[in-house]
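Exercise: predict the fold of this chain.
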Amino acid sequence: MGTDREILERLLAGNRRHVASLPDGYFDDVQTGQHPTVVAVCCSDSRVAHEGMWGIDRPGAVFTPSNIGNQVWDDDGGQRIIDGSVLYPIHHTGTDAVAVVGHTGCGAVTAAYRVATGADPPGPRGVDKWVDMLVPVVEAALESDLIDREAADDAVINRLVEYNVGYQVRSLRDADAVPDRVDTYGFVYDFQGVYGDRPGRTYLVIVDGETAPDALAELVPDGYESAVESLLYGNGADD
């Protein structure tokens, strides 16, 4: 191991600033347990601010599992099951909502697209496991009439991102382990100006299986209609 500890120093200094910024009593309400209102399944991409995107400024509000490609499942001896990090807050902390959050330019979706169209897995094995679980999703998308395979790669990939978000949400809706009381939302976090001109905005693309933008615009609170957009099904309300 090298002797350069610059990264370690940054981490320690950042935590020192974090501690200094906390008001008195910051953790008082969560000392003996947690009751997050939502499970937000995000991609582990470093550009996706898991709590920052929601403006969260207190602990215990959002349960934040993340993985390569914002997937809600895992492989258990060859059987695909809903991941425990999604199920735990639902079954043990009273959480009644799950938000699946993809993002524009997703590297995991890109890798799965490459594999689905003939490329080798990116490696190493720990990465390939998650990419392999995405490949059937990408293949289903490419076989549908929702993806123009002749479009530029970035356009295809961003549509696949949205398709994957919808697929993950529908998988939650279909899973016996997820109670009917749980609401399921799907968003795409856009920092590349694909859906609109407001970097860092989350765009709602599916609610409990509903993907029609006009229907989604009716479901959101007044004033948030412009947060409904879709690359697959047409635009919602204009900004």
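Check your answer against the key: The helical segments are 6-21, 84-92, 107-116, 125-143, 153-174, 213-219.
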